[in-house]
């Protein structure tokens, strides 16, 4: 399979799974015992003298969970990503980076890719029956702070594409079949994973239990400083415990003095169950509204989304169950 220089929906999962499976010595051992893959073997002193590599993972309870993290994509490849996503790419794109979760019995594959996240960029934000869009049907504006800090002018940028890189990307789902024998090969199946709305919710009390983390990673997908007027970033984190795994995918954007957005997808699976729960929330607020409530006007107070996300109202929430059958 020829590589495109960046991970796509077609090549990303098969290529990474091929690499991870090469470090599986015996496929018939007890699936409840964690097997560390690729660079995770070196980090867990299984192959302490091995050379560091860009990919790592864990195999547990019939799941292969892994990642690849590498350098910022070179400019020529970024241009190809831009053509694939039909936009001018962000300043920093990690086109080869990927997080993957592969359920062996069902073939359900859930992964996160930069180019697919960028394909989901749009303006205005997504509209649904639950959505209450506050910055819709108009072009976003940039606040240019003047020397007099008490006065600001706001002007529109003459850019036709979604230059804030706002995305509702929740990860990519597909089914793969692993070929018997060697070489290790994966092919996409026509049948898509079954996904539907649910009244079930993630058990956050379960996640609060003190449980050793067997494997963890934090994978960046893209980042941009919005022409020095803020920040826009997409990344995904995962942690694997003996009871299951939890994934947090996060896009957040701050357009200085104008608006702040936070789109999060949380995914939780308990090993041994036939599904996982995926919860997507979209938060957004204008800075004028925050200022009117007495919150600070200096943008230095809004550089870490974790410190003020509680101030943002939920504009949309979607709850789904993905079946592993």
TrEMBL record:
<comment type="similarity">
    <text>Belongs to the TIP41 family.</text>
</comment>
<dbReference type="GO" id="GO:0005829">
    <property type="term" value="C:cytosol"/>
</dbReference>
<dbReference type="InterPro" id="IPR051330">
    <property type="entry name" value="Phosphatase_reg/MetRdx"/>
</dbReference>
<dbReference type="GO" id="GO:0031929">
    <property type="term" value="P:TOR signaling"/>
</dbReference>
<protein>
    <recommendedName>
        <fullName>TIP41-like protein</fullName>
    </recommendedName>
</protein>
<dbReference type="InterPro" id="IPR007303">
    <property type="entry name" value="TIP41-like"/>
</dbReference>
<dbReference type="Pfam" id="PF04176">
    <property type="entry name" value="TIP41"/>
</dbReference>
